[in-house]
Amino acid sequence: MEMDRSGALLEVEGLHVRYKTKSAEVYALNGLDLRVERGEKLGLVGETGAGKTTLALSILRLLPERVGEITAGSIRYEGEQLLEQSEAYMLGLRGRRISMIFQDPMTSLNPIKTVGEQILEVLDLHFPGLSKAEKLGRVARMLETVGIPASRGGDFPYQFSGGMKQRIVIAMALIGEPELLLADEPTTALDVTIQAQILEMMSRLREEYGTAVILITHDLGVVAEFCDRVAVVYGGRIVEQGSVEQVFARGMNHPYTEGLLGCIPELDSRAERLTPIPGQMADPTVQPKGCSFAERCGRCMEICRTRQPEPFESEGHSIMCHLYGPGEV
Amino acid sequence: MYLVKYTIKRLLMLIPVILGVTLILYFVLELSPSNPALQILGADASAEQIAALEHEMGLDQPIIVQYVRYILGVLRLDFGSSWVSGYDVLDTFMLRLPDTLMLAFTATLWAVALGIPIGIYAAVKQYGVFDYGSMVLTMLLFSMPSFWLAILCQILFCLVLHWLPATGVGSLRHFILPALVLGANTLASMIRMSRTSMLDVLRQDYIRTARAKGASKAAAIVHHAVGNSLVPVITQIGISFAGCIGGAVVTESIFTIPGLGSMLINAVKARDVPVVMGTVILVAIIVGVINLVVDLVCAKVDPRIDLAA
User: Which terminal residue of chain A has fewer beta carbons within 10 Å of its beta carbon, N or C?
Assistant: First the structure.
């Protein structure tokens, strides 16, 4: 198959996703644009409900059936339109070319199958040509790679601690050697010391396999440590993206990013209180005419309530805010 | 090794259960205004004859002594003999056990074999026509009294269609209707349990994980959902099977099957204490063993169940 090696690995354009429940329609993604280059480490940051997980599930086309629906937009992966592919194509893609690590390692493993079997399943699905012995060898090596003795492959998930389970989940995600890894808050459910270990390990493995990673998190510290680039999600859109340096420099930011950065304590400043972002996450059941952050924004202007801002770009740093228009800067 | 240990432990735990069952039963039966000696000898017996028989049977002893004697007999597998027929209780029980076991087994078997797939399919196709249909079916099966269902079946299959014999035993064909009727309730609970359990499992994160690995929806269901959904269902199978043995009392008398149920009913009517006691104890043992088997199977399916603990 001829693949377009020059373009981005993943290109998401104008993605709209809607959840239909009995009581309401929730607009989860509202025209989200995102580009991921090969081997890149992208941090996807935002509050709970901003649409981070929805994006990951959309890419894999695993949105909850009958509830979640992609209403507009396109997702191109290695030049292929994913939204137009057959389910059979997606089966070959999931776990092999794009893998996902879910938030809670406690519940993401099948409790009645051994962890070895569950890792092996990926090889059974995607490498049917390999011999049984070869597959088992790969599983054993993968377990060792994530720091679990291969002899424990016959153990069940309940026999492992949370951190070890997450290592197993990571082993499961990497054994197919995917080009893209969607890591949905992989460390949120773990305690801080384990978090650092897992991140360090992911970083090492990422180098080894050259996998691109979308690290979904609400922890800016994790992003600063792990990622090359950051994309900030608010109200189902990317409101700011740029390199870690650009975004964390606190030079020019989207007011929402400013708010997020204001929530991190700084060791060298004498601030006694952190500055929280006032108000609540925008109601996702209504589609605002203007900027979805307008209600909570300290620098909200007349235009913000009536018109969607266009992205303002400078040296790869893009901000979607009326403050930074062609006239203003 | 711990399996053997666990099995022995569980079997030993049956002893207090049986002591409890017999204790209650013995004293309740003692309260009933019957005179066994009179019952055995008939209304013409003289007072001396009655007193002599009472002495022989130990009925002139205090009730505690009688109870202890009875239990000591049970430990030697001596359940006494019927006050009505004079036959040995254990022999009669063993004679009638096969029909009842056969009935309860076939009833449970067809209900399980049909109920679990229906329940699972209904869950997978939740809110579909099949799902609603199966829910209406379970409601009907749950709410129909078994004697009524039995009569309806007899009218339809015997009187109208002439397909099956209405009563009696003798061939496998005789078991079809009783098993159908007896299993109806089990079928309903199997459908309900496996549907609920499956719906719960389908929402679990590990199903999504399996899909993200590249498993098709069907493969995720077969390899990851079914096994997990069966754990509570297996427990229910054990309860249902025990229930079928109890429920056989009604079904057997409608279809005139000479099993334990009809034996127990006749014994209760005739105040035949040894037969009632013996049957209840032996059925309690059977139910206890079934529960043990169920727990062993559950532990086999779900590694989190730790029998050693």
Answer: N
Strand A317-320 and strand A311-314: the pairing is antiparallel
B-contacting residues in A 97-126 (Cβ below 8 Å): 99-100, 102, 104, 107-113, 121-122, 125-126
Q: Which residues contact A3 (CB under 8 A, 6 or more apart)?
A: A78, A79
Number of alpha helices (DSSP H) and beta strands (DSSP E) in chain B: 13, 0
Same domain, B188 and B59: no
- CA torsion sign for B227, B228, B234, B236 is negative
In a domain, B5, yes or no: no
Query: Among the listed ranges A77-81, A287-291, B277-281, B291-295, which one has the minimum average pLDDT value?
Result: A287-291
| Same domain? B116 vs B21 | no
> Per the domain annotation, does B6 fall within a domain?
no
Q: Do B97 and B27 lie in a common domain?
A: no
What is residue A271's predicted lDDT score, i.e. its pLDDT?
A: 62
Q: Which residue of B has its CA nearest to A127?
A: B214
CB within 8 A of B161, min separation 6: which ones?
A: none
Tokens of A270: 């004498």
CA distances from A288 to A17, A114, A241, B31 (A): 15, 48, 22, 79
Looking at B53, B75, B97, the residue that finishes a domain is B75
Choose the mutation target among A58, A121, A122, A182 for the interface with B, i.e. most B CBs under 10 Å: A121
Q: Within this chain, do residues B24 and B128 fall inside the same structural domain, yes or no? A: no
Give strand pairing partners of A10. A36, A77
Residue B301 pLDDT grade (very low, low, confident, very high; cuts 50, 70, 90): confident
In a domain, B207, yes or no: yes
d(CA B284, CA A95): 52
Give me the domain span that covers residue B41.
17-75
- The count of domains in chain B is 2
Strands ordered across the beta sheet of A10-20? A25-36, A10-20, A68-77, A80-81
A263, B155, B182, B233 from B166: Cα distances, Å: 80, 8, 15, 32
Residue-wise pLDDT for A194-224, tens only, equals 888 888 888 888 888 888 999 998 888 888 8
Of A93, A108, A126, the CB nearest to B209: A108
